[in-house]
Each structure stands twice: as C-alpha cells, then as structure tokens.
Amino acid sequence: MSNESRGFLAHPLFVAVVVVCLGAAGFLLQRYYFDADRSAVRLEVQALEQVTELIGDLPNADGTTVYCDTMRLKLLVAHNGEGNSRVSVLRLGVRHEIANETVDLTGCRIDPLAGRPHGIVGAESYKIHFRRNGVDARHFVSQTNSSVIDPANLITKQSGPAFISIARDDAPVVFDIIVTNVRKDLLSITFVAETDVEDQQPTSTSPFLIAGAR
Amino acid sequence: MPAQSLRAVGAALLLGLALSPALAEDTSKTDAFMRSVQDGFRSTTELKEVDALVADEKFEEAFVAVTEVIEQASKSAPSSRRARFVGAEALMRRAEIRQKLLHDNLKIIADENAAAELGSVRAMYHYASRIILLHSPGEQQGIDIGLLPPIAAAKEMYRRAAFLGDLTSADLLTATLVMPHEFLEKNYWGFLQRVNADLKKFASVHKDFEDVLTPRDFTLLRAAVDRYGLSEIDGLVTTPSLPGRSVFVAYQNDYWLRRRLAFAWRAFFAENQPSSMFTIADTFDAERSVVAVEGLSDLYLIVPGAAGTVLPNLVVIEREATADAISAGDEIMVRCGSDDHKATVWSVDREKRIVHIVDPFYEFWKPDQTPCTPSFDLIEFTSARQLIKLDLDEVVPMVLAIFTLRDPL
Predict the structure, then answer these.
(1) Is the interface score ipTM higher than 0.95?
(2) A41-211: what fold?
(3) Does a structural domain hold residue B261?
(4) If we measure between CA atoms, which residue out of A109, A114, A131 comes closest to residue A214?
(5) Full-model pTM
(6) Which of B161, B187, B213 is the last residue of a domain?
C-alpha cells in the first residue's frame, strides 16, 4: 500500500465516516433484526393415538407410525413467543395428499368385537372424514349439537369471531380432532394456519400418515 | 311408576331383558353392564315434585302441580319427543290423582285417552280396561253409559298396546276378537302372549307343544305370524353354525322387537356420557345370557369380514353378504368414524334397499351429525313412535356385528 493510500485510511475524517457507518449498521441490525417482532403462530399436533382397535399391529413407514381407519389428536395453536404482537389465525385447515410411501398395511384390520356401542360421545370435538368423494368436517359442541364445517377452515363462528387471536402469553388453543380415513389410500395429513402476519407463509404441522382399514 | 325405578326398567326393556325369567341368573358382568346402560338414561325429572306430593298424600296440591306440568310440557320440553313423553306421564299421574280425589270417571278416562294418544302403553291398557269395566252391568257408578266411549274403542286401544308388546293387553284383546274374520289375529296375539308371558316355562313345555300341535295347528300359527308378525322365518341367512328360526322363535323375536319400539318412546340419553367400557363382545355375552332361552332359542353374533376374538355362537360372513344377513328384530352394531352405536332393525326391504330402524338415540344417524347416512329420514310411526328410514347400502359398510335370535343348535 502506498503512503498516500495509508494516509487516506488514517485520515480522521475517513475514520469518523467508518465509525458512523458501522454505528448506523449496528443500530439498524439491532432495530430491524435483533429487536424485530417476529410474532407468528406455532402449530403442532400432539397426543396422536389410534382409536379403532385393530386385529393386527399398527404398521409403520421407516419408523413412523401409520394410523389406521380412525385416530385422535390434539392440534395446538399457540404464539411462537418471538415478539410481543398479537397474532390472528384467520384460517385453520386440513390438507391431505396420497402418500408415496410403500407400507405393508395388512395390520390395518379392524377388530369389530372391540367396538364400544355408545352413540356419539359427548365431549366437544372436530371430526374429519376422508371419503372417496371428498372431505367431510364437523364440529361437535355436544352429543346432539353439531355443524358441518369447511375442512379448509375449522374455525367456526359459533363461539365468537371467526378467527383466533393469540397474545404472547396466552395458553395455546387446543382442538380435539378425530380423523377417519374410509378410503383405501394411505394419506399424509397436515394442518395449515393462515395468519394476519404480513409476508408470512402459511404455517403447517408435520405430516402424519393414516390408512383406510383393510 | 316411581321415577327412580323408571330408568332401571327402561334400560332393561331396551336391552330386551325385561320380564325375562333368566334375569335372576345375571352374572356380575351383566349387572355392571345393566348399571352402565341405566346410568345413560334420563328419567321423568319434571315430575319429581308431583311424585313427592303424592308420596305425602297431598293430592290436592299434587293435582295443581301436575296440571301445571301438563300445560307446560309442550312449551318447555327440549324436543317434541320429550314433550310427548312428559305430557303422557303427567296425564297418567293426573288420572291416578283424580282417582284418589274421587273425580268423575269421564275425566279420568279423558286423561288416560290423552296420555294414550301421546304414546303411553300403560295409559292404553288402563283406558281400555276402564271402559270395559264401566260398560259392565252394575259398574256405571252413576255415569250415563251413552257418554262412555264404545267397547270398540277399548278393543282398538288393547290392539295398540298389544302392538307395542304389552302381553296383558294382547291377552285381553283375544277375548274381544270373536268374529270369524278375526280368527287369525286372535291366534297371533294369543300365541304371542302364551310364548312370551313366561318364556322359561314355555321353553320347558314347547317340545310338548310340538308333539301335541298338528300340522294344521302349525300352519295356522305360521299363517298368523306371516300376517300379523314382524319376524322373518324364510329367507334368513343360515350356515352350519347359524340355524334358522322356528315359528316359536319368531313369536319370541316379535315380542322383543315390539318391546323395543315401545321403549324407544321413553328412552332419553343423558348428555355427555363417557364412552362405554363394554365392548360388543361383552354386550353380546350379557344379552345372550338373558335373551336366549335354553331349549327354545339362542342368540348368535354375525360378524362381516373378520373377528379378532373367538366367541361361542360367533359366525363370520363375507362383507358382501351383510345386507342379506340383516333381518327384523336383529340388533346391529355400527360404526361411523369414532362413534360406535347399537340399534334394532324394524324391517328390511332388500329389493328397495331400505332399512327401518328403532333407535331412541336417532340423532346418531342424522346427516348433520354423521356423514355416513345422508339418506336419513325420521318417519312418524304408530302410537307416537318414530322409525328411522335409511338406505340399506349406506348401513351395510357401517355394520360391525349383528345379534340375531334363532333356534338353538
């Protein structure tokens, strides 16, 4: 480096400009990255369990359990804790696709005598049936009070506004969901939430697999 | 009937266990099963206050209270079905209170008639018997006989009660069926009463019946059940381990089916009950122990597809044969998604692909409750009862098991 260049870099004015630029960059980084409010929705399926009793064992696909006919789960909708803004879930839907996995489904045989005839059991729940001719979703408030809902949006207007608003410290909103597959296909299921957060892609759960009874 | 005993009796009737002599031989498992069913029903809570006043012999106050219940029944009941039941029970209570207060017999008859019209089997029997009594010489008690309903009204009311499996009414009806054209009907109700009034006793002598009855008698009993009965005899699915149904068992099967129709009127499920702890296999064991009568009949468990358990009287059939295997009087265990349910088949029309179901919990089948039976239709039937009409081809895929009453092996 020439003496001239070295002199320029050592010039107090240049040093001052660099210091100011670095300070500004740090400030902007702090404000728009480290302190940014990245509030979003957290979506999670928990407590997955097989409902209908089977004659065989539950199949699995590369170590992942494959459920058969009817299973139950809890869908948690919560704030991700990465910011203080309230997040509104505008739509909460279920999506399915035929799974590519090759799985031996011979274990998916229902044990009919293990059935427990009792009619509709009373707890509030959402029941989703994957049928040959589409998806049927219902919200059961009680044994005798239910409504057909859009599988693309499980949020109903029955108990308030047609969206879920969640603050950072709110307890998760829990959906008790029963999924039935009466098709022969092996289906991969996910739940997807669309929120009011700008530029945020829909949030989805990890997929799980459910096969129709053999 | 006291409200507290209603649930127990009701639950028993639903299961087809009422009046069964074998009830005394219940196992503890059956007891537990009965209790669980009993806990699932609501009783006449609306009449609690009236019953308390009657128990204290405060009949004037009870009369006022029960009249209020009658007036409010149609306004405050959560459903028209509940309104009919509560209204009928209240009217019968008022008829009984009127008797205590020595009210005019015509007013008592009017209450009993109104209760009968709302569906009460007890009211049908009391109404008919009171008319018969008051028409008897010397029994008018100051009533102008011209104001009494005619004997024909009593006969028709006995017929309605007999249709709902009331054996005392069936017996009394036979005494009024004296015309030549009523001969077959008289034989039907007479034999229905004779077989079922004491099943165990009948089972012990029915071999004697077989020895004593001539082919002509059998033809008559068969013709009577074909004309007035509900059960199929020919055309039932049979296998080496699933016998057919004799004419005697057809009369037994008819009786249970009629009682279940009667009971569906008064059965109201308690909301928010937990899932049953009893499996279909448990239910079958319990019902078989009381419905089957040794030497006369037996209960069989038909399973379409495959069964994971080995049980006595278990018969596995092809899923495709299910529609043919369902017949009147059978109980079907069905599943829609996570909900398992049990109901009684009233009739099957295999050509028109229609099945009629008796089920106090009809909500299970409603399209706004279940995606499995979009064809659901609730039909007003006889004596304020309802039947559920369904497409047979929608029901077949739902069937887990069928309980059917047949001859013993």
Answers:
(1) no
(2) Immunoglobulin-like (2.60.40)
(3) no
(4) A109
(5) 0.83
(6) B187
